[in-house]
Structure formats: C-alpha cells, structure tokens
Amino acid sequence: CKVRGPCSLSIYRHNKYLRMERLMKSEVNRRVVLAEDDSDISDLIEAHLLREGYEVFTTADGAEAINLIASYRPRVALLDIMMPSATGIEVAQLIRSSAVYRETCIVLFSARSTGRSKQFLIDFDIDDYIMKPFSTHDLLDRVESAVVRRESRNN
C-alpha cells in the first residue's frame, strides 16, 4: 500500500470513522453554534454539520452568537472573526472567561491572515484557526479533532 495510493484514503476514512464513532458513543453533546455573516458559507457548513450528526444553531451576528452559546451550551463554537456586533475574538474571550464553558471547543475562521496565529491560539485558548477558503471536509476533520483534544485535556 503506497502512501498516496487508494489504501491511504481508506485508512483516512477508517480513522475518521473511528473518531466519529467515539464521539457518537461519548456523553458529549453534539450542539454547534455557527456564527458566520456570509449566508452562503453558513448554509454550506450547516448542511455538512447536520449530515455528520451535529445539532446546529446559526447566526450572522457576534452578539447573537453569545446568546445562543448561553442558551444551548454547545460543544463547539465555530466563529468567523469578522462579524457585526461582536467579533469572533470577543465571543471567544467571553466563552473562555466563564468556567461554565470550559469544555466548549472554539474554532475560529477568517479570510484575513494573522501573523500571530500561533500565539493568538494560545492567548485565547482557541482550539483551532482555519483560513478561508477551506474545504468543508477539512473543517469537519478539524472540528472533530478539536473536540477529541479538548475532551482528552479536560479528563
């Protein structure tokens, strides 16, 4: 089996299946708050998350994202950095300022590059940062990996 051959794809799918199986069997909730002000991107991400078994609450506004997070206590917060009312960074800071949301995974995404992305992740305890454009498959893999990492850190 070559590294780039058909077997590598089946190994990839098998590993993804194992991660999903572990997540589905765990007691962790499957709620996601998705805050993205571009409705086309939001609809696409939401469709893929729903297909993977997540319960998705969407908004195009940072302030509304805060309300959704307070109401539904999601496992994952997917936040665009540039949004009306409150940025994804401000929402992330609020999440991390409360022990109630310690287990919430935060994945930020943006079309803008930040030169300090690694330090940024550490400073705000962000689980992942993704540059637009991205594939929905990459996003889902990174969300699943972030959930597993955060779960292992909290246990």
Any overview of this molecule?
The protein is α/β, with parallel strands linked by helices. 51% of the residues lie in helices and 16% in strands. It contains six helices and five strands. The chain has helices at 6-25, 39-51, 62-72, 88-96, 117-123, 136-154; strands at residues 31-35, 55-59, 76-80, 105-110, 128-131. Strands 2-1-3-4-5 form a five-stranded parallel beta sheet, with helices on both faces. Strand 3 (76-80), helix 4 (88-96) and strand 4 (105-110) form a beta-alpha-beta unit. Helix 1 (6-25) crosses helix 6, helix 2 (39-51) packs across helix 6 and helix 3 (62-72) packs parallel to helix 4. The longest helix is centred in the first third of the chain and has 20 residues, at 6-25. The radius of gyration is 16 Å and the shape is globular. The termini are far apart. Residues 1-9 have low confidence and may be disordered.
